[in-house]
Amino acid sequence: MAYFLGLTLLAYLLGSIPFGLMVSRVLGGPDPRGLGSGNLGTANLYRLLGWKAGGLTLLGDILKGTLPVLLAGFWLTSLGAWKESAVAVVAGAAVIGHIFPLYLKFKGGKGVATTFGVVAALAPGAALNLVLVYLMALAWTRIFSLSALICAWLLPVAVGLFSDSKAYLLLAAGLSGLILVCHRENLERLFKGEEPRI
Predict the structure, then answer these.
(1) Quick one: which of 40, 52, 80, 100 has the fewest CB in 10 Å?
(2) Taking a C-beta distance cutoff of 8 angstroms, is the pair 108, 101 a contact?
(3) Burial per residue of 1-27, b for 16 or more beta-carbon CB atoms within 10 angstroms, e otherwise
């Protein structure tokens, strides 16, 4: 139980690390929170500072989801039948940390990349297929947010197809809903035809 609580806290703290802000500062850029969409995610960093900033932010945000899940999978084997549920809680804590970061007064990103990092560790087949869907949607629409929303809608389906775990499926459904809620402003702009394209 101590390992479980410690890993859950660690996952939240790792999730809270604002890689977008750190990357921008290292590259001598502005505070992303005050420009573009105001988001610290990959898309806004790409728009403000280019592919290098966007790529580094993406990598950091993915690892925030992957590392805690891998650690939990290794350290929580003693929980037996409860292991998958415990790992799902740790994974959820990482994404919640990204969306509600301790270090930024609980105002963070939208959880897409960190959720992908979680799924990559829990169900690699699902993650691979979601990447393909994302790239095809992006090539077709040229809109980052719409591509992410399509993947969010398909997240529970993908995890259900590539994992037998009910705990992971429940996690996927919860993260899908959370991502959709975080994109409510994007949805409004999409319906108005005002969402920016690449």
Answers:
(1) 80
(2) yes
(3) eebbeebbebbbbbbbbbbbbebbeee
Torsion sign across C-alpha atoms 38, 44, 50, 54: positive
Q: Roughly what angle, to the nearest 10 degrees, separates helices 83-99 and 112-122?
A: 160
Distance from C-alpha of 149 to C-alpha of 195, rounded to nearest angstrom = 13
Angstrom CA distances, 183 to 69, 105, 106, 109, 112, stand at: 25, 19, 16, 10, 10
Report how far residue 39's alpha carbon sits from residue 41's, in angstroms, rounded to the nearest whole number.
Answer: 6
Instruction: Read off φ and ψ for residue 135, nearest 5 degrees.
Output: -65, -40
Q: How far does CA 65 lie from the centroid of its chain?
A: 7
> Is the alpha carbon torsion for 186, 42, 127, 174 positive or negative?
negative
pLDDT digits (tens, 9 = 90+) for 161-194: 999 999 999 999 999 999 999 999 888 888 888 8
Q: What pLDDT was estimated at residue 195?
A: 82
